[in-house]
Amino acid sequence: xxxxxxxxxxxxxxxxxxxxxxxxxxxxxxxxxxxxxxxxxxxxxxxxxxxxxxxxxxxxxxxxxxxxxxxxxxxxxxxxxxxxxxxxxxxxxxxxxxxxxxxxxxxxxxxxxxxxxxxxxxxxxxxxxxxxxxxxxxxxxxxxxxxxxxxxxxxxxxxxxxxxxxxxxxxxxxxxxxxxxxxxxxxxxxxxxxxxxxxxxxxxxxxxxxxxxxxxxxxxxxxxxxxxxxxxxxxxxxxxxxxxxxxxxxxxxxxxxxxxxxxxxxxxxxxxxxxxxxxxxxxxxxxxxxxxxxxxxxxxxxxxxxxxxxxxxxxxxxxxxxxxxxxxxxxxxxxxxxxxxxxxxxxxxxxxxxxxxxxxxxxxxxxxxxxxxxxxxxxxxxxxxxxxxxxxxxxxxx
Length: 398
Ligand code: MRU
What we know:
Four Helix Bundle (Hemerythrin (Met), subunit A), Rossmann fold, 2 domains, seven-stranded mixed beta sheet, four-stranded mixed beta sheet, binds 5-S-methyl-1-O-phosphono-5-thio-D-ribulose, S-methyl-5-thioribose-1-phosphate isomerase activity, IF-M1Pi, NagB/RpiA_transferase-like, isomerase, amino-acid biosynthesis
């Protein structure tokens, strides 16, 4: 597995790789409070649906470990933890992993208080709640990599059986991905990039293409960095080149599939992901290229019926009109120690900057999760009941 780590953690200490400085500088920030985590997530020093949830959950665990909770009763301890989690939930609205993690953690602390500690002294009950919270946050972090390895396995197998183009004599396939869904967006291995990594590890990847992913350039800054770091045969394109790339299918490049991650997959399979995903899905359908969403079940939102119910985060205008990068010297060499922010558009232009878009289930061929691959039934609909029966029943029972 990759040595790249977006999140470094040991009990009481959390460090987060500042992704704003990548690919040129590797700098870890210590994140010890919910406020620091909120700022780190909002400013996108950490990003990617699973990583956002992990950093929020662990940061609150670190402050609890360091004695931030001054509550004098178990009830107050629970309400303190609830309020910190509710605050963290406001950092970024579209990805559901954080919301799902918060629901889980709130359940854990309530169960910890009812599981045989009632007769204990108040302080012991509060300590048990805090210990249960920290252990559960650590478990979210630990399980994420396991989850991603399974997504990689299921996804690569599904692609090799369902997306192999006719001309593939050697059984290898080429794929395109968007945004960054790798080690930097998770605790390790990645989701969509994990599928690519698994194809590569199995000797079945011919070539990976990644889009630049304007305006934030997660593709060129982060995915390209991960692909080069892993020695995966790969090529960077701008977002606007995908159609031209698909049009060379069968001639130059046999793109078998587009594999993307997700910030929120809702009950009918409509999927919110990085802006530009929807356009890729339309193009893929037109060119007969499979379109696959690779995401953990923690990115599935069973409460929201369709994509129309997803709140899309809008970000500031400067992300389109300005850009930061390392300075390139007269000799053509990149000066990694010197970065500059430059204007790339008239600063007076009006800007629309939605961070995500919604791809209709109709355009998605498969949703790959750690529990298996979900494809549409004879009725043309996704049904997540089979892979998450308990969560499905909990929602149905409401
Ligand atoms: O704005 P970002 O960088 O947080 O957006 C990230 C994405 O859209 C990813 O595709 C998604 O979160 C999945 S990451 C495994």
